[in-house]
Design brief:
The chain is an alpha+beta fold. It has 3 helices and 5 strands. InterPro entries: RusA-like_sf.
Amino acid sequence: MRQGGAQVVKFTIRGTLPGLNELIEAERSHRQMGAKLKKQCEAVVLHAARSLGKWRADGPVRMVYRWYEPNRRRDKDNVCAFGRKVIQDALVRGKYLRNDGWKEIAGFEDVFEVDAKRPRIEVEIYEDEN
C-alpha cells in the first residue's frame, strides 16, 4: 500500500509483549532468562510478520507502533521499550530489515490505546521511495 510517496506495510501481533520491567526481572532471576524471554518474543513477532510475505525494506524506514493494551496498568514506557527492541531485532532476523541502526531506521512513533477485548500491537512500516 502507498501513502503519499511512501510504501506502507503493516502487520499485527496478537496480545501484548512483556514490558521492560518483566525483562529486568527475568535477567535478575537468572543470567540466561532475559535472553530466553527475548528469543521467545522474537518468535512471536516473526510469526506475525509472516503476513509481510516477501517484502523487504530497500532503504530507511519509519515505524509506527500502535500499542493496544488491555488496561492502563503498565506505564507507557514499560510497554514499548522492550517491545520496540524485540520487534526491530526480529525484523532484522527475518531479513525484512537489513539492520536496525541509524541508517535503516529513520524514526519511530508510539501510539497507545486500550482495547480490553483485543489487546495487540499494530506495526506500520513506511519506506520512502526517495
